[in-house]
Amino acid sequence: MAKRVDHDQRRRQIAEAVWRIAAARGLESVSMREVAAEAGVSLRLVQYYFETKHNLLVLALRYLHEQGESRAQARIAELPEQSPRGVLRSVLTELLPLDEERAQSLRVHIAYFSRTHSDPELAKVFLGEGTPIEDLVAGLLSAASLVPGADPWHEANLLVSGITGLGLDVLHDRYRPDEVVATLDYHLDRLFGTA
Amino acid sequence: MAKRVDHDQRRRQIAEAVWRIAAARGLESVSMREVAAEAGVSLRLVQYYFETKHNLLVLALRYLHEQGESRAQARIAELPEQSPRGVLRSVLTELLPLDEERAQSLRVHIAYFSRTHSDPELAKVFLGEGTPIEDLVAGLLSAASLVPGADPWHEANLLVSGITGLGLDVLHDRYRPDEVVATLDYHLDRLFGTA
């Protein structure tokens, strides 16, 4: 069992090196050799665990998703207020670069995103199946008591897309984090009729 | 005068070659030599007009903005219905890849966007000054008769960011164009109280 944990840790350590390079210099700077140097391991070890660069890119993205999801779930579980609105607000603020971890995650996603139009195989992994975040948000909205006429699906669609884009604007210093959070709270107020 | 027009046309012809390469293969594939080949002109001519690759990238982006703006203004002028809602809808659908021209423009923007986090000088040109589209949408909303409590600035912020993101989802085949237009119309209905 100890051996297995060790392998997982090594894989994660290498994946984290991919994230750092992608966030700072883009996906075109990710090579097996650069990643080995960044992770402080040998090139052979990177090749042993990941075989190809494509495999390394795909798995580094999967780890990033997994890590983001676990942390989001942990943060939601710790919420003092488990109301539909509180949970919804937490899910949506997970998309914003409100700390260094989420900022790095967003930067890595930008690096991958730019590759999606020239690498269909990577695009498939990046885009995933269906629209899980929109489904989650629409589900939370459906279960909540909203103002009359509010359509959970159309609302979820614009919220997820809009908050993601405003997160990129924060990275670019077009908006301050508190301005974007104020926009989110305004929209939740309007939906829940608490404006 | 004839000479001047000719120079402008040549510059535009070269800029359009930059767009095609950027849309298909990303900004990293743009070189003075590739652009000359794509435009069907000599390398010396590209160098004569643009001097450096950075200058070429900056000016190709400016031309794209100018062209997009002229076409948007022409489309808005031709609208049968010049109501605030009609104009607003037209401004926002300009952000969507509803024809090959807007799809290409969005692809070029993605290519530039991915470069903004590693090239601060290009980022400055790409991001521009202030938030002109948000200001335009907020201005149109302020002048319109909206449902009570609607805040033009918060609404403009989420609409511009959200519709831009949904346009990228259309490029990625996550949504059909008509689904995104339905989401936009739903939100305009809610704002104008016509739901």
From TrEMBL, chains A, B:
GO terms for molecular function: DNA-binding transcription factor activity; transcription cis-regulatory region binding. The keyword DNA-binding applies. Keywords: DNA-binding, Repressor, Transcription, Transcription regulation. Residues 31-50 bind DNA. The keyword DNA damage does not apply. InterPro entries: BetI_C, Homeodomain-like_sf, HTH-type_TetR-like_transc_reg, HTH_TetR, Tet_transcr_reg_TetR-rel_C_sf. Residues 8-68 form the HTH tetR-type domain. Pfam families: TetR_C_6, TetR_N. PROSITE patterns: HTH_TETR_2. PANTHER family: HTH-TYPE TRANSCRIPTIONAL REGULATOR PKSA, HTH-TYPE TRANSCRIPTIONAL REGULATOR RUTR. This is DNA-binding transcriptional regulator, AcrR family. It comes from Amycolatopsis saalfeldensis.
